[in-house]
Amino acid sequence: MGAGNNIPFPVQSFCHDCPIPDVQDPRPCPTISTRTLIFVKVVEQGSFIAAAKSLGLPKTTVSRKVQELETRLGARLLHRTTRRLGLTEAGSIYHEHCQRIARELEEAESAVSQLQSGPRGWLRFTVPYSIGITWIAPLLGQFHAQYPEIRLDMHMGNEKLDLIAGEADLALRVGALPDSNLVARKLGSLRTQVFASPAYIERYGEPLHPEELQFHRILAMRKPYHTGNSPRFTWQLGENGGELRDFPVTPLMTANDMSALNGALVCGEGLLLTGDVMAKPFVESGMVRRVLAGWTGPEVDFNAVFAGGRLVSPKVRAFVDFLVEKLNFDANYMLAQCPGAKLAQQQKAQEDAALESSGKRILEKVAASAA
């Protein structure tokens, strides 16, 4: 047991209904008892002495309040030795609930305080690099102009910070929630699709079916489960929104973030399966276009994720509301940017017919000269 989450502990502020709002008052508080909050602080600090120093109280007072709490509950909460304190089974269960209550009380005070002066303070959030660069970073100046009292700290990367432990106030994440204690607000949706540059198509041709991907040059995102020297890569695609199938690919280049592969995509070095949202600027500029018409990957949500609770920090709420207003992700947008499969097949048939006709003319000339 060591220092855990640093939960501020304004003792008297939680006992306004008590006739004498002081830690010496043994009567139970109508909301949450002072003894309980002292117990949380003891566990957080790891000793009675450290807790007493943090609270500005005598060690004997802190020890007595914990003993009174144990008496009231009829259970021992702490193992006491000369060297350290440890939680009993009952203490561990009780502390888990009390810590959450203490945090919510802190959030309540913070929310009321900020309500008087508006959203303010540092807001630390995390976002995948590709989306952060393309979509979020261009909006930050506008957000700060609207909320000048909020300071922003953007962490870009694919690793997931622990929101419950307070490593960040907010996470912008793609996909399903990994933790039931987190709350998500949908900002939009995206769908993975296959893209190529005109230079690639001219040089290597265009795949008309995912089975052909194994013969093409591939740029692929490396996932955490891709370990070893020769990991197996597959792309998940479904036809016209149907069941997804795995198609094997052999990458010539991999990266842990799609944005690192954009340069190679534009230069015509390979095909890339990426989110339509990330590819949109390149498609609109004509640098790349979608291939494999009718085949798409899974549709996933892009969410603003934060720790659950009845209260949401005003600065978090302000930022999420801003993103909901400004972002306009539409998983169906890119479908309109690709020529239909039928048209692509017709073009291929015309090319084959032209080659066949040319071959026949050559054979006729050879036969005529031989005669």
Automatic annotation (TrEMBL):
Family: Belongs to the LysR transcriptional regulatory family.
GO terms of biological process kind: DNA-templated transcription
Superkingdom to which the source organism belongs: Eukaryota
Keywords from the named record: DNA-binding, Transcription, Transcription regulation
The keyword Transcription regulation is assigned to this record: yes
Stated name of the protein: HTH lysR-type domain-containing protein
Domain HTH lysR-type: 38-88
InterPro entries found in the cross-reference section: LysR-type_TF_proteobact-type, LysR_HTH_N, LysR_subst-bd, WH-like_DNA-bd_sf, WH_DNA-bd_sf
Pfam families the record matches: HTH_1, LysR_substrate
PANTHER family the UniProt entry points to: HTH-TYPE TRANSCRIPTIONAL REGULATOR, TRANSCRIPTIONAL REGULATOR-RELATED
GO molecular function: DNA-binding transcription factor activity; sequence-specific DNA binding
